Amino acid sequence: MPSPTFAELGVSQAALRALDQRGITAPFAIQSLVIPDVLAGRDVLAKSPTGSGKTLAFGVPIADRIEATDPRPSALILAPTRELATQIVEAIRDVAHARALSVTAVYGGAGIEKQARQAPKSHILVATPGRLEDLIQRGAVRLDRVRLLVLDEADRMLDMGFRPVVERIVKQTRRDRQTLLFSATLDGEVGRLAAAYTRDPRTHEHVPAPEALGKVAHRFVRLAHDDKLDALVRELRDDARGRTLVFVRTKRGADRLVKRLDRHNLHALAMHGDKSQNQRERALGRFDRGDIDTLVATDVAARGIDVDDITHVVNFDAPEDREGYVHRVGRTARAGRTGTGVTFVMDDQARDMGKIAVELELLREFTSAGFATPTASSHSNGNGRSGGQGRSGGPGRSGGQRRRHPRSRPAARA
Ligand code: ADP
Ligand code: MG
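A: This is the predicted complex of the input protein with magnesium ion.
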C-alpha cells in the first residue's frame, strides 16, 4: 500500500480535484498528520519546518468543513504579514472555489475600501491582525459567526508584537470555535497562547528525517509475539548480513534472547547496563574483531557502541519513539555505506509505530508490512515535548504523550 492519499485522509472529491489540477496528488507529512483531526473537528497545534506544506494542512480541511450556505466569514486565518496573507489565499483559492466558497485577504498597506466591501462577503477571511481590527472598528466585518480560527506562524505574530490585537480579535469569534495553531515552536509564549485559545488540542510535529536515514533500507515486519524469535533467526541467517545490532527493551530481555539464539546455533553477545565495564569491553572487542557478528543491546548500552560497519539493525522490540528509531537505525549506513533497518511490530504496537513511520516519512515501508495507514485514530503527539504545557485534560488527549508499552514489564531499563 502506498502512502495515504488525500482521499484516504477524508478530503472531499471537490477538493481532491482542485488539488489534482495543481499537481498536488500526495499529502506531505504534516498534512497527513493534521488533516484527519481538523476534519474530525479537533483543535490542533502543529509545528513543522518552512516549506513543509502547512498552508494546505489547514486550508484543505477548512474548506471541507464550511458550506457555501454558511455565514460569512465562517473561517478566519490570521497571518503576520501581507505577503503571507496573500500567499495563503493563492494556495487555497482553488480548493475554496471548488467548494463554492469565497476567500479574501485583508492586509495593511493597501486600500481599505475594497477590502471593506469584500471581507463580509467571504466565507474564509485571511487577515493580518492590524488591518482586520481596522475593518472591525469601521463596522465593515463582524467575527461573531467565525467557528474556524487559524493562527498561522503564531510565533512570528507574537514576535511582531501582535499579541494584544490577536487577543482582541480572538475574543470576537465564537466561543465554541475550532482553533488551529501553526508555529515553528510551541514552547514558551506560543505554548501559553495555544493553551489559552484551544480546547483539548491534538499536537502534531513533523521533523524531517535526518539525511543519513535515507541511505538505509527500512523494513517493518508484522508479527505475533510468539513469532519474534523465528523471525529474528531468519534475519540473522540472511547471507547478505554483516555485523548486526539487535535492540531489545530490557536487560533481562537481552540475556534471554542471547540464550534462545544460542539454541539455534546463532551466537550473540548481550550488552546492557548490568554487565561490568570489563565484560562490555570484551564483548565489544569480539564484535569489533568479528569473532561475533551479533550484539543484542538495550538503548542505553548501545550508546557506548561505536562501530562503523554495522550492516543491519534489528528492532526486536520496537523503539519507543522517533528519536529512539533514529538513534538505533542510525547505527547502520555509517561512513557512506548502506544499511538495513528491520523493525518487528506486533498489532498492538502498530498505532505507535505508524506514528513514528509518518514522522520519518517511512509510511510506504510501514504499510508494505500489511499495516493500515495511520489516520485520525492514531495518536500523533509529536515528539512528546511540544504539547506539554501543563494543561490538564481528559483521557485520550496529551496523555498519549506518555509512552504506551503494551507489553511493558516492571523490569528496569538498562
Ligand atoms: P509552509 O507553510 O509549511 O512553509 P507551504 O504551505 O507554503 O509551506 O508549502 C510549501 C510549498 O509546497 C508550496 O509551494 C506548496 O504549493 C507546496 N505543496 C504543499 N503541499 C504539497 C503537496 N502535498 N504536494 C506537492 N506540493 C505541495
Ligand atoms: Mg506557512
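The chain has 17 helices and 13 strands. Residues 82-98 form the longest helix (17 residues).
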